Amino acid sequence: MTADVAVLGAGMHPWGKWGRSFVEYGTAAARAALADAGVEWRDIGSIVGADTVRGGYPGYVAGATFAKALGWQGARVASVYAACASGAQAIATARAQILSGLADVVLVVGADAAPKGFFRPAGGDRPDDPDWLRFRLLGATNPAYFGLYARRRMAVHGDTLEDFAQVKVKNAAAGALNPLARYRKRVSAEEVAASAVVADPLRLLDICATSDGGAALVLSSMEFARRHGAPDPVRIRAVSTVTPRFPNTVLDLPDIATDSAAAVAPPAEPFRPSIARAAYEEAGTGPEDLSLAEVYDLSTALELQWYEDLGLCEEGEAAKLLREGATAPGGRIPVNPSGGLASFGEAVPAQAIAQVCELTWQLRGTAGERQVAEARVGITANQGLFGHGSSVIAVR
Amino acid sequence: MSRKRAPVVVGWFTEESADGDREGGFRLLGTRCSACASVFFPREDVFCRNPGCPGRELTEVPLSPRGRIWSYTDSRYRPPAPYVSDPELEWQPRTLIAVELEAERMVVLGQGAPGVSLADLAIGMEVEAVPGVLNEDADTTWTTWHWRPTGTRGPAEETADATGATGVKA
């Protein structure tokens, strides 16, 4: 186990398709998090930005941009990129600075203004880039991979299209209660079934949109929190940022093939479960201790996959867990009480930070209509393109 | 004017000889580490990626010509660039097939051959790697690999992707 860091403040800019700059979303989220923490920007010792990529390098879309927008005050800066896991790595960087004594109080910011339509690789002719190659050779968009995973679950575990639709129904109902969500309308299974197929067997309402949004956290040492008059803050107890182990035998985005297990036996535990296990070990906790989970539901079927990878149920039992209502509000282990990506859409560098914002409000008991009763321990889970694991455990 | 034929990526699959002879059959090409025998596709030519292996000698090896479907899907919407398709033509869905190669113990993704539809596919079905055309531009026919069920007979001669640059129907 490692020492805790305090979550002093959390703030978000509502998700949507606002047509404005990511700087505005990130700055609004940062100001909200600072106000929530009761910390002045000039007292922040370090700012960590979660990057996204434009034209092949993060450039403008990085930490210093937010520091400038908030008003240069000399804080230490770091910028991190890990695709969808960028936000968790920004949190990990801030936490490492705090635990090592490099900084007392750190501002973490991620924001994005998503392009319309499918995510696509940066331009140019780059045959050495697997992300470029999967589009050039196969036209394999992200939803195409989601479709492959969903079909595989149907064949191996007997999941049905109705199960997938019920994930959307659950998350849309939660999102309807969240003023920060982009989609705030309940959705029926019939509406999911009537939406257009994008990547068979998945339909438009099985797949998350791409959104604009911003999220920020003010993190500090426990000692700073006490001095600051917050003796019992939400605490981050673990941040897992593990990579796969060779041979990685589960087809991962953006790869065209898995590793071969011909010469070396595959690890007993595949990549995604290893992400959660590392977090549980670091926190000295386990799935049985959880009050809630925020998981990366890029598709409805992937939410079910996370149930198993987080150990909420045995392999192949996820649809059963859903059908029992265990992951719905009021259930044994509510999943995505925020509404999840189904209700937000993905704003890549902000999303993993937004997951921790939701944990913070839930663990404080200030989540309003979507509050999980007596929430004490929460986990987030996410996976960034190219092998970036991400999971955060927070406690109160 | 005839276009020259060129692989869309060099060294990933066997190329046809000038007269179209496919002696020995079409094969995907990977590499094998001479120290630990790990196989890589796409090919690794410099370092072995087995973390327990210091291997530096990787030799080209043809992959199994056939495998079984691990999963499959299709692209109902036109993929963005760098995928090449003619914006003037209505998009036709294209199957994508992930295939498990038994000997290599790996899964390799590929487009289904032209004319292969979802209804032709099932998890566990045997498919084979066949030469295909990805797209054509002014002077080049870009070749690739496709997966095709072994139980069905596809078109004898694959032409450009029915959804691709030329609009030639397979």
UniProtKB/TrEMBL annotation, chain A:
Molecular function terms from GO: acyltransferase activity, transferring groups other than amino-acyl groups
Domain (Thiolase C-terminal) ranges: 276-392
Transmembrane segments: none
One Pfam assignment: Thiolase_C_1
Source superkingdom: Bacteria
InterPro entries: Thiolase, Thiolase-like, Thiolase_C_2, Thiolase_N
Domain Thiolase N-terminal, first and last residues per copy: 5-111
Protein known as: Lipid-transfer protein
Source organism per UniProt: Streptomyces himalayensis subsp. himalayensis
